[in-house]
Amino acid sequence: MTSSHGRGLHLAAAVDQRSAYDADSYVELARLAESGGLDFVTLDDTFARPGPDALAVLSRIAPATGRIGLVPTVTTTHTEPFHVQAAVATLDWVSRGRAGWRLDVSTTEGEARLFGRRHAAPADALWEEAGEVAEVAAQLWDSWEDDAEIRDTATDRFVDRDKLHHVDFTGSEFSVKGPSIVPRPPQGHPVRVVDATEGQARRTAARYADVALVRAASSAQAGAVRAELRASAEKFGRDPDALRVLVSLVVDLGDGEHAAEPGHGGGGPRQTAHGPLYRGGPVDLAELIATWHGDRTVDGFHLTPVEPRRDLERLVNGTVALLQHRGLFRTFYPGSTLREHLGLARPANQYAVTGGAS
Q1: Are 337 and 97 in contact (CB under 8 A)?
Q2: Among candidate residues 88, 42, 89, 33, the one with its CA nearest the CA of residue 65
Q3: CA 254 to CA 240: how far, in whole Å?
Q4: Digit-coded pLDDT (tens) for 156-198
């Protein structure tokens, strides 16, 4: 179901867990989120602290789930763009079109020393580089036309070489010739997600992201950022309606059915050092989500539980159930891919459309 004013509400949740390395706990959380019809789950990753590889964990979750989108954080700093895009494309294949990719950058000298190839750089420069990686990833995903695979055993021909294309991309820190080693993903382009809270990251999100995450403590603040992102996307020649803007909130649902503190729940989130925090109950959270979405200031919410198992369960069985009962959120997945969940079209292949030389 969609909301009464014609715009679908989009909901996503983080499945981050401290010091958890067993796959079963992540599978359990992803299945719980899927039972609520959430668009996607995210799993954070960084070179700055210990933890499992997010992309590998979600590749393990893929066969244990059927519909929910899977979005790992993958840094574009110190990594090879060719390998990153191939890994994300592979996740899209093994999940049958449910992959996304949350781009992030590594800004510290400690992270740089892990690789030893270059020193840390300013965040603005790194986000510009992230944009270049997003661009070359799209070109590499398009380097195979959709029907490039022949698989003709009689002639021992696996691929039509006329339908493979070199990208010949040169960025500020890398160059890539292509084509990719992975056929074009089921979604064409796996969904690109960017935290657009501040600085150059917002510009990169406006130009390249399918989903922009913003940290806002009020509906008015969220609406202003959304309007800015949509205007910037249009300046870059994009259709602003092809950009989903989701508010990121940390949620603590351990305080019963309603808000336990002034300034939370129906009164809105409270700004903290880690971003806006909602502390209260699932009923008031449902009201907040319905109100902000009804104000047309957001396309949805990305929620990070303080206590993963407890809060995600209360989110799905409380908040989401209430939104479904009011007809504001879907009760089933109408499609099978993450792009379909988000209402985003499958991109045309830029080489097939333009007839670019191979």
Answers
A1: yes
A2: 33
A3: 37
A4: 666 776 777 888 888 777 888 878 889 999 999 999 999 998 8
